[in-house]
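Aim 2 progress. For CoA transferase, the working sequence is reproduced below.
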Amino acid sequence: MTASIAPLDGIKVLDLSRVLAGPWCAQMLGDLGAEVIKVERPEAGDDTRHWGPPYLHTDDGTKTEQASYYTCCNRNKRSITIDMASPQGQALIVELAKDADILVENFKVGGLKGYGLDYESLRKINPRLIYCSVTGFGQTGPYAPRAGYDLMVQAMSGMMSITGHPDGEPGGGPLKVGVAVTDVFTGIYSCCSILAALQARHRTGEGQHIDMALLDVGMAVLANQAVGYLNADDIPQRAGNIHPSVGPYQDFPSKDGNVLLAIGNDGQFARFCAATGNEAWAQDPRFTRNSGRIIHRKDLQELMYPLMKTRTTAEWIALLEDKAVPCGPINNIAQAFEDAQVIARGLHVQIPRDAGDQIGTISTVASPMRLTATPPVVRRPPPAMGQHTDEILAELGRSPAQIAQLHSEGVV
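Predicted structure tokens for this construct:
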């Protein structure tokens, strides 16, 4: 961190969550400068520590049993292992919660009440606590007791029904998105809600309970597809890579592969036509306006498919780049990280980890939040399981002998 103070410097977060949505939220808070303590189960740890392959490697290239998945959402945290099923473990978490500003958890509804770690119990000892619960279906409603995972919510929310190629086409049928988007979006919405609650606490002095549900978020991020149905009674269908309301906004076969055009307005289409020597297309009543290009999409595609095969992907990008016509390649992830713009923005971050496990360096993706005065900084690598247990216990006032006893009793 530079001389500037991080936005959330001095804010303490207790992360009782695991897998992706909750940890993603806590990681964002950590990126913004909060001190995050992640509580994990002894021996097992967060579920994602075992979600492999792929696995992390040591400095000499030896594959470990530590899954790389965990590292995507747990940087800027310290890890302590606590058996919360034991009374001593519960007491330790209560002690940590007394001094916390924020708590993030994703247990089943009511799952923490028996441990005395639910919001109503903890608010009695810390009324300023902002307590964020992340579940599949929320704290209310007939599905509240159910466990919820990203794939299930992608299916239930309708997201899979609009993702993939139409029935009858090669590869047709509903598909999930290639990343657990409802988990990630839930983490982002949770972080936004927590920041709003912090601002409210500045005025009231009181914390509050935040009820985040994957299904709520999955429905919300349907965005234009949802409101199109709600307002026009039009049930969206799968359309592959074609945008249902804008065109031409899709991929095309090029001379050497595929190229993507993202033409979002009439001016861009007119410039595309001029650049390719097809000014008449922009004057054609069928194609002059976006609405016409959607109605007559097939007619336009019949003209464009042969045209797009006349140049390579690189040639199309070179032709259109200075015409303000969005055009680009379809990269795999390796190609994306080799892209000049990705490199210029410093999106690949390598951080050393000294946890006695010979892992050495861990790679992660830089935070996309670019605050000019108080930028996010990767201060801590994703921790080894329980790496900071003794350190955190010492901060709670435990002596070396007391810490050793907690270890021997299996509390930590």
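Residues 181-204 form the longest helix (24 residues). This observation will guide construct design in the next reporting period.
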